[in-house]
Design goal:
alpha/beta, 6-stranded parallel β-sheet, 9 strands, 13% strand
């Protein structure tokens, strides 16, 4: 708050303000907002990961919208298709995956909507569930046990795999090995997992909410997460149409090129230089 040089701050999202139930109480939330407002006002420029997030930040912190610039998150170079069958098989064995699979990666907070994903998976034709497992990757949190109990109640304990925390180095192989990546989230400041999946050549079925259409574009299939019947039909159709999935994979690879880190780093340098020049540095 007291630096004298030009200040550029990145705000990825304001999850604690959007979902106060995730925070640690009203006092902490109030303090967080006060600090965020002061930093936002003090900054010469605020960077946001998406257009949606930029609008959200300006609204929630009462900032001038033109003070918030969009700079998407850049992809790491390691996110690319893993084509070595031996590597794919080994990684899948490490996580006890023993069948073709639908993949989700993230946490299990309610806004991630994994509970709806499990319901939709349960509604798929039995022949589809018999062929494709649902693999859910993400570290243990207080909602994960609820999702696991839900799967067991629906009789899916043997078809829904909770593989826990995924090692960073295993992520490209887990994305690459999946028949489909599904991301049903209701709120994202950006949405990195669908982008990483596309970069690995995996077709993506994704919620149409908040920032996610900006990331996926026309390269994936977007769905209304509240319309579970339509979502189930889209999921079933894609799993039964390998040619459509191959086409989506190609489109996703092309789309992912727009988010390569080198181009985004260049854009960030341009923004920093602009702020410096405006402040006479």
């Amino acid at each position: 708050l007291r630096v004298r040089c030009p200040l550029v701050v990145t705000i990825h999202d304001l999850m604690d303000l959007v979902f106060p139930e995730y925070g640690s109480g009203a006092i902490s939330r109030w303090l967080f907002k006060q600090m965020a407002v002061r930093v936002g006002r003090r900054a010469d420029l605020v960077l946001a990961d998406s257009q949606y997030s930029a609008d959200d930040i300006a609204r929630l912190l009462d900032l001038q919208r033109d003070k918030v610039e969009v700079l998407p998150i850049g992809l790491e170079e390691r996110y690319k298709p893993v084509l070595d069958g031996v590597v794919l098989a080994q990684v899948q064995r490490n996580y006890a995956i023993d069948a073709p699979y639908i993949f989700y990666l993230g946490n299990f907070k309610p806004h991630k909507n994994v509970q709806a994903l499990i319901e939709v998976y349960a509604s798929l034709p039995e022949t589809v569930r018999a062929e494709f497992q649902l693999v859910l990757g993400g570290r243990e949190d207080r909602w994960r046990s609820e999702r696991k109990a839900q799967a067991e109640t629906l009789g899916l304990a043997n078809r829904v795999r909770f593989i826990g925390q995924v090692e960073e180095g295993d992520m490209p192989a887990l994305f690459s090995g999946a028949a489909l990546f599904v991301f049903p989230s209701l709120y994202e400041g950006f949405g990195l997992p669908p982008l990483e999946a596309m970069a690995c050549g995996t077709p993506v079925l994704c919620s149409e909410r908040t920032s996610l259409p900006e990331v996926v574009g026309a390269a994936g299939v977007l769905f209304d997460p509240d319309n579970k019947e339509a979502w189930s039909q889209a999921l079933s159709a894609l799993l039964e149409d390998s040619a459509a999935r191959e086409k989506m994979a190609e489109n996703g690879l092309q789309r992912a090129q727009l988010f390569r880190a080198d181009a985004l780093c260049e854009r960030q340098m341009q923004l920093l230089e602009k702020v410096g020049l405006e402040r006479g540095c």
